[in-house]
Structures are given as structure tokens and as C-alpha cells.
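Regression check, fe (ii) ion case 580:
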Amino acid sequence: MTSDQALTRYLLRLGDNALILAQRLSELVASGPELEEELATANFALDYLGQARMFYSRACELEGAGRTEDDMAFLRGEREFENLLLLEQPNHHFGDTIVRQVLFDSFYLLQLEALINCGDQGLADIAARAHKEIRYHLRHSSQWLVRLGDGTDKSHARVQESLHRLWRYSGELFDGDAVDEILRQEFNGPDLVSIREQWRAGLQTLLATATLTVPEDQWMDSGGRQGRHTEHFGYLLAEMQYLQRSFPGASW
Amino acid sequence: MYTQGLDQKGENAGRRLDDAGLLAAFQARIDAEEKIEAKDWMPDAYRRTLIRQISQHAHSEIIGMQPEGNWLTRAPSLRRKAILLAKVQDEAGHGLYLYSAAETLGTSRGQMVADLLSGKAKYSSIFNYPTLTWADIGAIGWLVDGAAIMNQIPLCRCSYGPYARAMVRICKEESFHQRQGFEIMLMLSRGSAEQKAMAQDALNRWWWPSLMMFGPGDADSKHSAQSMAWKIKRFSNDELRQKFVDVTVPQAEFLGIRVPDDDLKFNAQTGHYEFGEIDWQEFFDVLAGNGPCNRQRLEKRQRAHDDGAWVREAAHAYAEKHGQRAAA
Ligand SMILES: [Fe+2]
Ligand SMILES: [Fe+2]
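Current build output:
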């Protein structure tokens, strides 16, 4: 793998993460616990979607094969998407949504922070923009986590259960492969080992404030970076890609 | 818009009770095009009419998120998905401003939402029709937001200040929605035969319900007079409907799709289009709850409300514990 190939693939992964989360969040529109929260959900989905488009566009530019952001989103198959498994998990209840947001965004924020100084200017610029958005998302989701954790007995139990349910997808966040390694070495990319420590420390503080316990380390699922997904993913893709697949070559 | 011109029923009773002098002064201010503000004296009937109209409008924005939200996960390009998401987000924002505007009149959002969920409050019937294909998203933007703008532009000059100001903000966004919807229709009508058929089918299904959005004909909405005198309403239902038809028919021609009305013709003398009879039975059926999606729309809202109860309770409990104002 050349360094440019690794960079392209890294960008695609960033794009996949953002797109798949945007897709899950947009399923939630018009079903929030409060109108303000519906607005926030749509707003967050829009931010991730915007980020996905920028990551894909930069990847396409580097790839130089004439593919577009839409080709990446709508014409790749299950095994070609390399998003984190956490992000494709179906929406369950609001507590799960918040936990998914917190687990991912607290990682993503650190990842973006590191990428702001990376060796690819295109990626660095996107990271700087995305960083501002994610900082806001994380503050919002963290506040909810604290309210739910330290709210009623019921909300505490529910959100603690969400943490247990989704924890198994958190190991993969730091489970780097050759692509991450090339990024780190040749593009001054994130160091996943140090990010993991910061992530854990930050999460511990947040969970303590929320009166929640950090789940015991357990068996961790993984496979996203290799395009090996959970069963839910095929349905997500089928829905998302349906028009492009039904009318090949059409413009919309 | 989205108020269907049904908001002026039996509001004359309050008038007798109000002091004649206050009433005359109030009307004089309105006639002088002064804005009435929340703290000003106003007749009860004026207040009730506005609460009903503004809350109905707010509910329509919120329920309107559903038919469009139905295509968020299936939008055919990332750009279209982003535009649609932004639109749905705008509609939630419109709902929020409007609930706030209504609250200035002494009601609460909780009460208004309860009335929506119980079926007591109405919302625009147009949202009780299903979005079956992607072209429906184009048709809604083009026709439904288009009709909404016709109704809302005059509301920017409504005598009640908070409503008028909310409408100024909302109208800017609605016209963006309308343009985006038209752009979807344009792409489809310039696309493949299948895409063009999709656009035509959408126009066939959305045309008449869009005309119904302006409410019953003037002959059947005799209470409009009071709203006109109060400058809540500036044009009659039929005037607005005519304006909409006049603007929209040439756009359909530009798209190369046919308005589904055999009686439609341009009258060179009047400079207006003449159009066929609206099926008012359908309008009243849908209004009474018998539309394709009435039940589904309210059930979804109710489910969101029920599913969110534990979350709102948690936020409330947290705020109590920590002595803050209830967040979210
Ligand atoms: Fe709106
Ligand atoms: Fe709109």
C-alpha cells in the first residue's frame, strides 16, 4: 500500500463513519423526546453529512479515478464500507443514541484534533472545520448523559444498560491497522494508543459526573476497518442506496 | 399558511363583553397599521383566533416533518439528502418560533401539544397525504411550500407583532424550500422517461390537495370578514388560491408536465387562469380524520411523546436536584 493509497482509504473511513452516523440519526427525525432535541438531531446529522461529503471529495480527488462522493455513498457494497460497527447499530431508545454519540464523539474529537496538524492539508482543513462541530455535539451529548445518569432511577438504569450494550463496540475505535500506521508515520496522524488513554480518562470523569459506572472490559467486537459488518448494515445500505441502484446512471 | 382558513368560527361572542371604548381604540390602532404587542389590551376573540391560527400553523410545521422525513434515509444523492435534512430542520425551527409566538398570547406549548395529540387541534390536511416516491419531495417543496408562501407573505404584515415577526423569518426559509423543490422537479422532468413519469405522477397527486390548502371558497368562509378587519388576514382564500394557480401553472408548463385539470384555461381578458371544481368532500373528509395518513401522523407524534417521557422526567429530576432551570 502506498502512502497515498493509505491516505485515500483513511479518508474514506472517515467519510463512512460520518455518513453512516448521519444516516442513523436521520432515521430519528420527528421522534425526539422534545422538539428542541429533534432540531439538534437533524442539525447533528447535517454536520456529519457535511463532513462525509468533504472527506469523500478529498478521497476522490486523491484517488483520481473520476469517482464522486455519490459513487462512494451509493455505489459501493457492504464489504467496501469501512465504518466503525458502533455507528451502524440500530437506534433503540434515546439513551442508546446518547451513549453512541458520547462514545464515538469523544473519540472522534481527539482524532480530529490530531488530524488538524496532519501532513495532508486537505484533510487538515476538513478536520479543523469538523472539530468545531464535534466539540459542540460532544458538549450537548455529554450534558444529556449526565442528566440521564443523574436523573431518575429509571433513566439511570436505562442509560447504564445502554453503556453495557454498546461497550463491546468501543474497543474497535482504537484497533488500528496498517492504514492507521501509515497515517501516523507518514502524515503525522493520530496515535491511537495515546488517544485511547485520553479517551478513557475523559470518559471516566464524565461517567463519574453522570453517576454511571464504566463497564468492565469484556469481549470486544470488531471488523469495521475490514468491511466486516453487523447484520444491520446491509439493511441500512439497501435503504440508503435504493434510488441510485434502481435507476442506474440517473441524475437527481 | 397551513391554517386552511378554518380559523374564524364563532368569534363574535367575545366582542359584546369587551368595553366599547377599548375596542374602538384597538380597532383604530389596527386601522392605522400599528402592531399589537403581547402586553397590549386586545379583545378575547382576537386573542383566541390568533392562538388557534398560530398553534395550528405550528402543528403543521411539526407534522409536516413526517412526510419529508420519510425520504431522508433514501434521498438519491448526498447533496439532496443535505438539503432535505436542512429543510426538515427548518420546519422544526418554524414550529418552535410559532409555539413561542402563540405562548405570548397566554397559552403554553404543553397545552398546545396536548391539543394536537388529543386530536382537538388541527393541522394542515396536506400532510395527511403520503410521500410515495422521491418526486413527492419535489412536489411538496414546489407546491406545498409554494402555497404556504402565498399565505404567509401577507402574514408578515399581520397586526399581531410577534406573529408577524415570526413570519418574516419563516418566509425567507420557505422560499428557499420552494426553490429546492422546484429544482428537484426540474431534474426529474429533464431526466429519463421514468423520472419524468415520476414527476407527473407526483403533480397528479399533489395538485388538488395543494389548492385545498387555501381553505374553503369565500362563499363558505363567511367568518373571514372579522379576521380581515383585524388584519390577521389580508386576502381571501379564493384570492390567494387564484394567485397560486396563476404563478404555478406556467411553472408546470416550463417543467413540461401537465396540471391534472381538464378545465384549466387561461382567460386573456382577466389575465387569470380558470380552473376546475375542487372536490370539497375530499377536503372535509381528510379534515375530519379520514385521510390516508391522519392516524399514522398522530400516532407517530404520540409515540415520540410517550417514548420521550422518561427522558423529560430525567431532565426535570436532574434540574430539581441541581437547582437549575429544566434544560433541553
Ligand atoms: Fe415551514
Ligand atoms: Fe417549508
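Comparison notes: Chain A has one domain: 3-246. Residues 3-246 of chain A form a domain with the Ferritin fold (CATH 1.20.1260.10). No diff flagged against the previous build.
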